[in-house]
Amino acid sequence: MTNVISTEPEIKLPDDPEWDKAALVGVDITKSFNPTDPNIPGTGEFGGGVSHGNEIIPVWNKLCPYFEHRYLSKDFHNKTNKFFAANHGVEPFSFVKSWYKNAGPEDKIQTWPWHDLAEDPQAGIHPDVNTEGAFIFRKGRNDDVETLSIFVGEDRIYEPVYDNGKTAEQHFRDEGTKYLFVGGLAEDYCAGKTALDAAKKGFKVVFVTDMTRGVVPEQVEAMREELKAAGVKFMTSDEVIKLRMTPGALAKLFADTPKQAPQYGNGGGRAGQLNL
Prior knowledge:
The radius of gyration is 18 Å and the shape is globular. The protein has two domains: 17-77 and 116-253, Rossmann fold; 80-113, no CATH class. By secondary structure, the chain is α/β, with parallel strands linked by helices. Helix content is 18%, strand content 16%. Strands 5-2-1-6-7-8 form a six-stranded parallel sheet, with helices on both faces. Strands 3-4 form a two-stranded antiparallel sheet.
């Protein structure tokens, strides 16, 4: 698949060494999660979508020229993945008993319809997304542990190793990354969990509010409260650009934010639906 690569405008960026440690992360801005009709979930090219998910693509593209380091993620599932409803003989979005070793007796796991199969050459990043210079995390290849966040599986133990032989945390540490500007789909699932795990691992995180869309309003609100408690900052893309164009502003943004110690609990069931 050939993605559309935008011709990025030449923008003279002010010198600020802190921005050498910053990265833009777009979580799951894929065909499966983008509806062809922005008002109707479930009308994506592959039968799915998050309402108005397509509206975040221009925001990602707008921010790209301001970041030297860019990352995208996409699901890359085997058909044998245990999270597909068909593999349990149940309807999509049904809950089944958790098989995680650290799960409680009442813990449930939500199942999904088929999407983003590794064998499908048409699945992947939406073709309107600027992929120039972006490293792509292909997640969801473990059949037994669901990977919503790029950092940690839903059992809160498994950390996926990507095509470069590293976990996401190892990759960012090796690159000297300190700040992560995160958005994507969906806010109350993969994008929010990626931002939350990043903060719990000690990264300074900005959640880009117009570069995300959510599924269930109550879940979105709960996720935002978790992100706030973890020290995540919320900014619009225009505010991010202003921050980038103001030398010294990035370091000041997090000057009073305490470092977060890792805090992981057992994975459990979640309410709500994502139309795929």
